[in-house]
Design a protein that fits this description.
single chain; 95 residues; Globin-like; 5 helices; 2 strands; globular
Length: 95
Amino acid sequence: MSAAEKSRIADEGNVAYAAIVAAIPSVQPARRRKPAWNSGESKWTTSGRQKKEQLLALAEMYSADLRFKANFDQIDPRLAEFMKEAVGEYVKRNE
């Protein structure tokens, strides 16, 4: 991935995370939100569908891996756990 692609993805993620943090008090709308970086163009897709195992593993890393958690904590200390729960709910609803 080029530096420009990495920067674009990081910028999109930051916009999505800011929107999610703003919506934490009203969890359901944030859980239904599908950020651009989680679209069919994502590297996390197979035949246009996210693999639930990949999503759940990534969500677990958000709170279990201290490097991921530290990045989320810089945005909001509630974000890592919220993202883990939201992804789990997304996978459950889309099984």
